[in-house]
Sequence to fold (171 residues):
Amino acid sequence: MLNDIACGLALEYTSCEIEGAGGSNRRSGANEEALRYFEILDDAQTELYPGCKDFSKLSFIVELLHLKALNQWSDTSFDMLLQLLHQVLPSGAKLAESYYQARKLTKNLGFTYETLDACPYNCMLFRNENAHLDTCIVCQTSRWKEYGVGYNRQSSLQVLSIVAKVWQQSK
Ligand SMILES: [Zn+2]
Fold:
């Protein structure tokens, strides 16, 4: 999919060849936006460590940032986790050294850390024109928990999957 996106972007610019990951020739002529997608493409195709088949450099840091956002880990605790992971992972692991680096990696994806309320059943997000609502417009479930304290907050990473789900339902 990322290849498709990169191809689409590259079509707008001359001498921008796409022949898989790596190589510098393919990047000549691409503008800043296209270059960002090439970086994403590279990160998505780079193994977290040599031989790792379950996570790429990008997918692992996205997973970690997702957990950080959902559990409201502090930046400092995230840095500490990364330091520990560096001791555990094989040498040559492509893992960010700090939260700051991790954010730089995912910045190209346009992720932010806005926290949003969502329907407990993930039908919708309480944002924009729905920001003031108390119940879900799809299933009428209350925005507020009947028990305990707090809302069904979603990180923006999880929001992507909810948006995709809502979009699918609307088709
Ligand atoms: Zn709902």
